[in-house]
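Deliverable D5.2: sample structural annotation.
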Amino acid sequence: MHEFVVNLHMHTRFSDGTGTHAQIARDAIAAGLDCIIFTDHNVRVEGVEGYLRKDGRKLLMLVGEEVHDQARQPQKNHLLVFGVDHEMAMSADQPQQLIDRVNHVGGLSFIAHPIDPALPLFHEDDISWESWGVRNYTGIELWNGLSELKTVIHNWFDAARYGLNSDSVAHGPHPAVLQRWDTLLAQGQRIVAIGGSDAHALNVQVGMFQKTIFPYSFHFQAINTHVLTSDPLTGNNFNYDRKLIYRALQQGHCFIGYDLPAPTHGFRFTAQAKQGVLSMGDQGEVRGAVTLQVRLPFPAECRLLRDGRVIKTWIDQQVGAHITKEPGVYRVEAFIPYLGKQRGWIFSNPIYLRPPSTERNPLTGPQWSQTTLPDF
């Protein structure tokens, strides 16, 4: 499998960000990213997709959109839309209709910052997702870098502390978002988790003091989504490379990595049985013993969860294995010490082990079950 680092959910001057597409792309390629996805509010900016090449590196630049109802106060129900070639904001006031339209044209939709609490100190409203009755969206933004800032600021001292020390903010996905995700998975839904920076590069001025907090360059070193593909990016066939990235996201062939404490590149979570091998996002029937294998880039604390409950913990280990015959939704969390605290480091997408069916024979090959995907 080929691994590529994607930073998604970022804003430019076309909405409420402070950087241009060109400036952001330069920061991204300097940070070593492979792909970025711009997502301005209720506008799909044309003419900026393509490649940036510098010093032998190539950056794939894609354009999505963050859609929400601007007439509503506060503006709840933000949806990240990828893989769509035209404007979607006209359906912003009807989340299910919006999701259906995205699916109709073969795009992807992710619920943005599901928990985004109010921050009265800066007159920021609660803009969490509310319409949880919607169906058939691709996934959720499990970890949002900017939303987490609102959860740690309680007074002006906190504001100064975290504003001046951005690297001390991130601890992990909001516990309520993790619980919601596990609940949806337990209901039989396949929900892909992604990590988003929500980068704006906020300019703050207090008297004569000016500072850009959470600059794009910081975000690109922090919460990223690592995608796994069977083929490498070409670096010259844009439509092919675009399809590779979006297919990996749709399949859940990806994990969330907090790359600031230590690089997460190289993490793997697989399931092996007589029928073949499953990767993150895959599903298969349990017919006999299945070996779940975890490989971390460095020794750390690692937890294996089934249906939202921890069933195995490895401490200060780089590899782990667990044999099971139990159906369930299995996923991995890893934690690492950083700046004096244990922090979330890696959050995998699930492997879905289903009960055996008497209605069909299990598939053989590298995947036991495979979703038919639309072309982008």
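Annotation notes: The helical segments are 21-30, 95-104, 145-152, 156-164, 175-186, 216-219, 238-251. The chain has two domains: 2-258, 268-354.
The annotation will be released with the project's public dataset once the embargo ends.
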